[in-house]
Design brief:
Helix Hairpins
């Protein structure tokens, strides 16, 4: 796993017990899941806008914000970044396209 992801994961775990008046992440944790989800949604929208603007530096910054808040969400949910990396590894080399030879069955009513 990336060194920065490991370091962030450790810090995000530590912030679970930090004082919300002194830590942005601790404040998010204290505000609960809805506040974290709101931040993920806000950052997602900012990524979309940055991409539409065509400013690669701004897009890079907004994706970093989104990834950070996704890491906060994972930690809040008791998940670790390496779990997501393992899922990506599991999917590696698999096409996201449906195999046309396999027919999708329609459920019976």
């Amino acid at each position: 796993m990336s060194s920065i992801l490991e370091r962030l994961a450790i810090i995000l775990e530590q912030r679970k017990t930090a004082d919300p008046t002194h830590s942005y992440v601790a404040k998010l944790y204290a505000q609960g899941l809805d506040a974290i989800l709101k931040k993920v949604a806000e950052e997602t929208a900012e990524v979309l806008l940055a991409a539409k603007d065509g400013d690669s530096k701004h897009l890079q910054e907004e994706v970093a914000d989104l990834w950070f808040h996704c890491l906060v969400l994972l930690a809040q949910q008791g998940l670790k970044p390496e779990m997501v990396l393992m899922e990506l590894e599991r999917r590696f080399g698999h096409s996201g396209l449906k195999d046309p030879s396999k027919k999708t069955q329609v459920p019976k009513k």
